[in-house]
Amino acid sequence: MKKIILFLIATMLFVGCFGKKEDIASKIVGNTYALQGVLPESEIDITFEKDKVAGTSSVNRYFANYTLEGNKISIQEPGSTRMMGPENLMEQEQEYLKNLKESKEIEVTKDGIVLITNSGVKLNFVKK
């Protein structure tokens, strides 16, 4: 009897964790989000597809693969186009791409998403 109860508890925990994974993915895939707090003359955004992200990073377009497990996210080294722009926008772009690669958690909010890096930086995005 104890084994059956333990099995049922373990099964419920497993199913609960699996549901959370699907829940976040179903909320973000196919959506585009704009980063808040960027320089006025620029735009940074991110679009989620099944296992890829892409967007605008101030001056250039970028793309990367990602994996999602629950609220844990891992974004691989982004690739990008190689256009040049004003120094302040290029610096903003490099900082964003660095933080994007270091993202480890994702939170879905009522207005969008938050990506949290290994060092605690929060990238706040609103849905476009």
The largest pleated sheet is described as: 9 strands, antiparallel
How many separate structural domains? Answer: 1
Order of helices and strands: HEEEEEEHEEE
Contiguous low-pLDDT stretches (5 residues minimum) are none
Count the beta strands: 9
Can you walk me through this structure?
By secondary structure, the chain is of the alpha+beta class. The chain has a single domain, classed as Lipocalin, CATH 2.40.128. Helices cover about 35% and strands about 35% of the residues. The chain is built from 2 helices and 9 strands, in the order αββββββαβββ. It has helices at about 1-30, 85-100, and strands at about 30-35, 45-50, 50-55, 60-70, 70-75, 80, 105-110, 110-115, 120-125. Strands 1, 2, 3, 4, 5, 6, 7, 8 and 9 form a 9-stranded antiparallel β-sheet that branches. The protein starts with a helix and ends with a strand.
Write the layout of secondary structure elements.
Layout: H1 2-28, E1 32-35, E2 45-48, E3 52-56, E4 61-69, E5 72-75, E6 79-80, H2 87-101, E7 103-108, E8 112-117, E9 122-127
Antiparallel strand pairs: 1-2, 1-9, 2-3, 3-4, 4-5, 4-6, 7-8, 8-9
